[in-house]
Amino acid sequence: MGSPIELAKDKELKEIVENRGIEDILGKSVPYPKDIEIKGKITRDIIEEISKSKKEPQWMLNLRLKALELFEKLPMPNWIQGVESIDLEEFSQYVKPKVEAAENWDQLPDWMRDMYSRIGLPETEAKVLSGLTAVFDSENIISRLKEELKQKKVIFMPMDEAVQKYPDLVKEYFGKQFPMADHKFAALHYALWSGGAFVYVPKNTKLVNPVEAFFIIGGEMEGQFEHTLLVADDNSSIGTSYIHFIEGCAAPVLKNFSFHDGMVEIYAGRNSQVYFSTLQNWSRSIINFNNKRAVAMENAHVEWVEGSIGSKMTYTYPSTILRGRGASTRNISIGISNGPYIKDVGSKAIHAAPDTKSIIISKSISANGGIAAYRGLVKVLKGAEKSFAHVQCDSLILDEKSSAYTLPRNEVDEPTAIVSHEATVGRLGEDQLFYMASRGIREGEAKALIVNGFIRDVLKSLPLETVSILTRVIGMEFSELGSVG
Amino acid sequence: MALETIDLTVSVGEKQILNNMNLKVEKGEALILMGPNGSGKTTLAFSLLGHPRYQINKGKIILDNNDITDLPTYQRALMGLGLAFQNPVEVPGLMLSMLINAISIKRNKSDFDISSIDPKLIVWARNKAKELGLQPSILEREVNVGFSGGEKKRSEMLQMLVMDPKYIILDEPDSGLDVDGIRVIGELIDSLRNSGKGILIITHHAEITKFVSPDKVIVVSKGRIVDEGGEELIKKIEEYGYKDYEGVQ
Q1: Is the peptide bond before A33 cis (omega within 30 degrees of 0)?
Q2: What stretch of H or E contains A39?
Q3: CA atoms within a 13 Å half-sphere pointing along the CA-CB vector of A26
Q4: Which of B35, B81, B84, B137 has the smallest number of CB atoms closer than 10 Å to its CB?
Q5: Cβ B92 vs Cβ B142: under 8 Å
Q6: For B149-205, what is each residue's pLDDT tens digit?
Q7: Cβ atoms within 10 Å of A307's Cβ, excluding its own
Q8: Which of A374, A370, A366 is closest to A396 using CA atoms?
Q9: d(Cα A158, Cα A134) in Å, to the nearest integer?
Q10: Strand, coil or helix: what is A6?
Q11: How many domains does chain B have?
Q12: Best interface-test mutation with B: which of A438, A459, A474 has the largest number of B CBs within 10 A?
């Protein structure tokens, strides 16, 4: 299976390059397209230094060093062809911002509050959320835990802190859902991880308000490697352990690009339910890898929602391994590729037990030369009897310069499983725009309307907070489009 | 006050379709424009609204003394020009209720906030839909997607009611409708005319005139006006067809 960029290379990319100018896409010195090459040396010394500064236990240092070895050995993954070179030597692997850790919103400096507002999360809304942790560069700068979480003995703290305060608990789950040997960037992540959130929801616990985490990259040429681990313990059957997760970057447009290689691991114990949403609105300077994996035990339900709007390039494939009988997952991704940017997103569901169920819904929107690709995998292992999987991919292409690709893969080794796939492509053309204009609706407004309509059925099933933020960000994204009616 | 064309000459690509067309629709007046298929009727409708594919080579379009020849489509619409399409295009993903909400927002010159939906408007639209012989549930369907011919015509009328333009161009409002449909839409057009709107009905078989008595009838052939008169022209065409006009230049 060729990468979408390979497929697109001859036509669309050429067109983008011609229309936009290569410098606009790439910055000045980087040839394109090209495989990623990692030039920088990440030494044992760097790793030891990071670990020491965090006062980590020996087992964590060992884990980092083992990851470093793997990183050096593993080949460049073949699914990320076409990205320009990343010179890790030029990245600061660990950047500590000049901000003191803040307890609440008011303590944040003005410019940072500004950033939050620009990614669509104003103060009032932030206050509703039960816990708020923000990673600025590599350190958590806000850590706040509301009464609800305290009363229910939910652990919610920066990942680094959890390593020290709950070493046994962390050790039991850390790195178990997403193995470091999975691919080169997973290994790199484990070697360099810093920041992120740890959430532990005890048995029989129900959380009402969402917990949020923010990730912001502030400077140029940084790598960011936050690690988030969410554990919903066994038999939290009455409850919904619910984490709502927002990533964002509204830093000034950077001359060079930055690199994000974060990870989310979810362990959903028996009968638990976990909802995890991400709204990615990185600035156009960010190359975004996001490694997300959940393991769902017996009768557990895991729900991923991925709103992917910003960044120069995004590669993210939230995955659920349905390990226990009756486990289920729903995986919704909304990708917007507006401008000469690439979204390569998708979902994976691995059915490893009988009676498991997965529903994957992908909605992609491309505009102004954007390329949106869905890449998914449904795998049903032998013995996962009577499993059910359905994949639905809908693409909306807003003009002739843009394109969408659907690359689904099904591997079914169980004859009693039912696996189905459905795909639609809608293209917005001159006639639709004229129709809308004849009603007094301008081009940009028409696009915003159609985009909203397109993702509406998906939004209906999402938590209100997600819908509100997503709608606003999409509005901002398309408000600048097409003022010519 | 009127919608007027002066020497309007239009081409699509290399091909000239309309030739020196002069017509005038006064407020409170119904003008019927008749002509065989391919005579340029839809081209006229699209040119009046400024479709980008239709090139105006000569002439002017005047709306209430304003020259709108070079204005973008959405501005013409906001100035009070409405078009009920003959074959409205499908808009996948967009519910009719959302479109109606957006039309209303633009009509009232409010901020374009598509997340706020006016519940009163939707109740009103459901009632109007019923009056037009539509299932109110059509509001929850995607615009024109899977609509029957009759549903399309009725939905176009519903949108005109929301837009409330000063002049309404109706492109074949009676095609694809059954007798009851023609009556409902014809009576509605008649009442709109009586309420002071300027009406331009484009049609090739004039069924609709059973319910809308025309103030003026114009016959076009090969992109030119070949005859003008009153209701008697309709009878003539019903009896003899358009063949008498074929040689007219």
Answers
A1: yes
A2: none
A3: 18
A4: B137
A5: yes
A6: 999 999 999 999 999 999 999 999 988 888 899 999 999 999 999 999 999 999 987
A7: 27
A8: A366
A9: 9
A10: helix
A11: 1
A12: A438
DSSP state letter for A79:
G
A197-201 and A418-427 beta bridge pairing: unpaired
Determine contact: A436 vs chain B, CB below 8 A. yes
Alpha carbon of A456: minimum distance to chain B alpha carbons (Å): 8
Residues 6+ apart with CB under 8 A from A87: A37, A38, A39, A40
CA distance B93 to chain A (A): 4
Q: Which of A227-241, A288-302, B155-169 has the highest mean pLDDT?
A: B155-169
What percent of chain A clears pLDDT 70, i.e. is strictly above it? Answer: 61
- Give Cα A159 distance to the centre of its chain: 18
Residue A184 — pLDDT band, cuts 50, 70, 90?
confident
Q: Smallest Cβ distance to A440: which of B77, B91, B94?
A: B77
**C-beta separation of A262 from A194 below 8 A:** no
Closest CB to B93 among A430, A440, A453: A453
Radius of gyration of chain B, Cα coordinates, nearest whole angstrom = 18
In 3D space, the residue among B190, B202, B98, B185 whose CA is nearest the CA of residue B150 turns out to be: B185
**Would you call A453 and B49 a contact, using CB atoms and an 8 Å cutoff?**
no
Q: Which residues of A336-372 are buried (b: 16+ CB within 10 A; e: fewer)?
A: bbbbbbbbbbbbbbbbbbbbbbbbbbbbbbbbbbbbb
CB-neighbour burial class of residue A206 (10 A; exposed 0-12, middle 13-18, buried 19+)? middle
Tokens 């991925």 belong to residue = A306
Q: Which amino acid is at A19?
A: N
Q: Report, in this order, helix, strand and coil percent for chain A, each rounded to 5.
A: 30, 35, 35
A285 three-class SS: coil
Residues whose CB is less than 8 angstroms from the CB of residue B17 and which lie 6 or more positions away in sequence, other chains included:
B10, B11, B40, B43, B54, B223
The letter for the amino acid at B109 is K
CA dist B55 → A239, A470, B52, B86 (Å): 64, 40, 7, 20
Neighbour tally for A168: CB within 10 Å: 6
Comparing alpha-carbon positions, the chain B residue that sits nearest to A476 is B113
Give the whole-angstrom CA distance, residue A62 versus residue B43: 75
Detail the DSSP E strand segments found in A53-170: 131-136, 139-145, 155-158
Question: Does A453 contact B106 at a Cβ distance shorter than 8 Å?
Answer: no
Instruction: Using a CB–CB cutoff of 8 Å, tell me whether B52 touches chain A.
Output: yes
Q: What whole-number distance in Å separates Cα of residue A388 and Cα of residue A395?
A: 23
Q: Is B92 on the interface with A (CB under 8 A)?
A: yes
Instruction: Name the minimum distance, in Å, from the CA of B82 to any CA of chain A.
Output: 7
Domain span including residue B71: 2-245
Q: Which two tokens stand for residue A340?
A: 């000469």
Q: CB-based contact (8 Å) between B11 and chain A?
A: no
Task: Find the CATH number of the domain harbouring B96.
Answer: 3.40.50.300
